[in-house]
Write a structure and sequence with these properties.
TATA-Binding Protein, single chain, two-stranded antiparallel ribbon, 8-stranded mixed beta sheet, alpha+beta, 2 domains, elongated, 259 residues
């Protein structure tokens, strides 16, 4: 029995710099991922969005690896979100269960798919927590609007809040490809089956949709807040113009009466 464990270790990891410095056997790479074989029957998977996944490494070995990766991390986390799943080897069997995956052998591509989906599950947990907090904050403003008939957030704070939401949305779109299947699954029925069952077991698609729906709700609220803010600023400007016109008219009247 083998253990796969994935950690969220940083905001981002520099893939190019990691590749240049890390000495393990590189099995797969692209602009966002590095998949290594560190020793026989041990694998390490590094993702640009701050995830590192391990196959069959001890806790001591994991800590050594993390120390090697730390220089390439943006905001290295000491408190890390994680998730793990067990892999059982059983000849001529391919099955995904709630707490383990049964593989026919130690196929590196099958192992990579398990590590990939485990890592995406951890990332979804992180984004779910972030979007839940953003939704709670948004609801506070909508409740205040309902009670007081006005917003309790300034223009600059609203703009920063909008920027924060858009930044999270962009990160999710860039880093998580829940609905896309890796190329290795396109022409291999076993790999495609494994990938589909992993997504289903980890409930990746539904969790992704929930996050996406939250962001859309938050965006709709923020757009409404912005419209209210713009209307308020427009009304204020109109009053300034009216007051200036009145002052000018009064000046003209005074000038005609007294001069």
């Amino acid at each position: 029995m083998y253990k796969v464990v994935a950690y969220q270790v940083a905001n981002t990891i520099q893939i190019k710099a990691s590749k240049q410095q890390l000495s393990w056997q590189l099995l797969f790479q692209d602009s966002d991922e590095l998949f290594y074989k560190s020793s026989p029957e041990k694998f390490i998977y590094i993702f640009h969005y701050g995830m590192v996944c391990f196959f069959n490494l001890t806790n001591a070995e994991i800590e050594i690896v993390l120390k090697e990766i730390k220089p390439f991390c943006d905001t290295f986390f000491t408190k890390r979100n994680s998730e793990e799943i067990l892999i059982v080897i059983q000849p001529q069997t391919l099955k995904v269960q709630f707490d383990n995956v049964i593989l026919p052998d130690l196929n590196k591509e099958m192992i990579r798919l398990v590590m990939l989906n485990t890592s995406q599950s951890v990332a979804l947990n992180d984004y779910s927590k972030i979007t839940e907090e953003l939704l709670i904050e948004t609801n506070k403003h909508t409740k205040y609007l309902e009670k007081k008939g006005k917003l309790d957030i300034s223009g600059n704070k609203l703009k920063r809040f909008i920027g924060k939401v858009l930044n999270i949305k962009n990160k999710i779109s860039e880093n998580l490809y829940i609905f896309d299947s890796p190329e290795i699954t396109w022409e291999n029925e076993q790999l495609n089956k494994l990938n589909s069952e992993l997504k289903q077991t980890f409930d990746l698609k539904d969790r992704y949709r929930l996050i996406h729906d939250r962001i859309e709700i938050i965006k709709e609220n923020l757009e409404l807040f912005k419209d209210i803010m713009d209307h308020k600023e427009s009304s204020r400007l109109e009053w300034v113009i009216i007051i200036l016109i009145v002052i000018e008219v009064v000046d003209l009247i005074i000038a005609k009466i007294f001069f």
